Amino acid sequence: MPHLPPPTFDEAGRADRIAAALPELDAIAAEFANKHKLPALAYGVVAGGSLVHGGATGWADIAAQQQASATTLFRIASMTKSFAALAVLQLRDAGALALDDRADAYVPELASLVYPTADAPAITLRHLLTMSAGWPEDNAWGDRQLALDDASFSALLARSVPFASAPGTQYEYSNLGYMVLGRVVSRVAGMPFQQYVNERILAPLGMTQTCWNVDGTKVLPVARGYEEVDGAWAEEPLAWMRSAGDTAAFGGLYTTVEELARWVALFLSAWPPREGDEPAVLRRASLREMQQAATARPPWLAGTALGEQAAPEAGGYGFGLFAGTAAGLGRIVQHAGGLPGFGSHMAWLPDRDLGVIAFANRTYAPAVPIALDLLRHVVTRADAAPRRVHPAPALTAALEGATRLLQRWNDDLADALVADNFFLDLSRERWQQRVARLRTLHGDLVPEGEIEIDNPLRCSWRLCGERGWCNVSLTLAPTMPPRIQEIEIASVLPPDAAMQAALDGLLALIAAPTLRGVGRLFARGVDRAAMRDRLRLVQLSIGPCALDAITGGDGSTRTVARLAGTKGRLIATVTLDRLDGKIRSAEFRMVE
Length: 592
Known about the structure:
Elements: H1 14-21, H2 24-35, E1 40-47, E2 50-61, E3 66-67, E4 74-75, H3 81-93, H4 125-129, H5 139-142, H6 150-158, H7 175-189, H8 193-205, E5 226-229, E6 232-235, E7 254-255, H9 257-268, H10 284-290, E8 295-302, E9 311-317, E10 322-326, E11 330-339, E12 342-349, E13 354-360, H11 367-381, H12 393-407, H13 411-417, H14 422-425, H15 428-442, E14 446-455, E15 458-464, E16 469-476, E17 484-492, H16 497-511, H17 515-521, H18 528-542, E18 545-553, E19 558-565, E20 569-577, E21 582-591
Antiparallel strand pairs: 1-2, 1-13, 2-3, 4-7, 5-6, 8-9, 9-10, 10-11, 11-12, 12-13, 14-15, 15-16, 16-17, 18-19, 19-20, 20-21
Helix pairs in contact: 1-11, 2-11, 3-7, 3-8, 17-18
């Protein structure tokens, strides 16, 4: 089988649409900074391998009246962890260490650890990378450890570390774990951790102003960190805490929007998998490895203020980065940073080649929501769709053959197309009967609309008939050559007059739910108060809505419809009593 075709963008007008969306970001950022009382907010958007928009609002230095810009240095705190993780991956790829090595093989001070259970495994480098070492969450304590010198750090480890759980059993954010990784890099590379990052990562990427300490050698302006005290801005003394040694791996870097854009672009450049030259600092496969969730976090909801549609997000911690999915954005990789005087965030969408950066100079400033707001704005305004997945040649051939087979059954064609499991799952005779029934229900079937390619070996498409249509999907088997292991068919008939009247009545009732309206529209036996409350919830969730599309059902007793409202969409499944034309049940399910 030849190499898989890489996904590509529909380039027509994409760059122009993104460019047109960028000027509006300045007003969004300024409004956010004013609302949240941020002395300064610097931000940027990365696309196509570079910074396409950088801006800032407010003061980097209030006393000096120095305005912030995309070239102002901000402390980025825990965003530094991705630099530490990349350093470990560099050494792994060079054969100097393995991720499943015991951590105490490189940091003998950890020999003092007393594990929480007799069956607990020894902490490995992978545990440290993925926040699963079992050490307790330590944000408040960790923020004060940047100035810890190497000798003091060794002494701290030698006194042992308590466990909150057994290694490898759950996610627990650990700054200490990344401090230990800094020590691992130092020991394996034979040089201080900060020097290693400077020489092996920052210099090759051209991040010449990114630094661990602001010592007067940098030519760029530096944002001072602030805390609001009694309604006035006061400089946060801990904002100038020096990064003293290996512990800086958890959060010590300063950088600018312009320079961090190179970092974000590096990770975006790893997608999609393809042929071609590798990046200088780390091969693409390893960059992608960093961006995979390894330790799961509990799902959470974003945008759950009263009246807003809940936006579910899920994912976990990879190597120095959070990776997961976000409603309306798809796959997302991100990391925040917070220290006394600063708050920061970086996030990118691998499938859309878009990233965003946000820095602010107030203690634990809310950089995450503004970064994601800017990202969502660009995605929405620019209609920045993900790359289009292309079918493998075997899938194209299978789709064409399956279409012919469903139009008119042919045993020889079926034998040439399907894998050995196909007729074991549903007999040949049943398939012959099924295809005959499709012709009876729908008449002649012809392909219509776009083919949806889930991956190069799986797709779905629509066959339209004289009456209704069929939604068809197929998946190829892991054989050479790939053959069809499964065909799924959903037969759909449009609503008849009675069902259409019921749908129209339901839409009107959602706009103004009442007990009397429920009584008129729904069959006896339906709990009127409960249904009214359910329709009120639908109205609150997505607002007044309209019929967007019919997605399933026989058209007379059951219909599945997608409803579109002002605040979102949902799927409604409606069943009808054919005797009196009233609705027997209405179930609703939220969708993106």
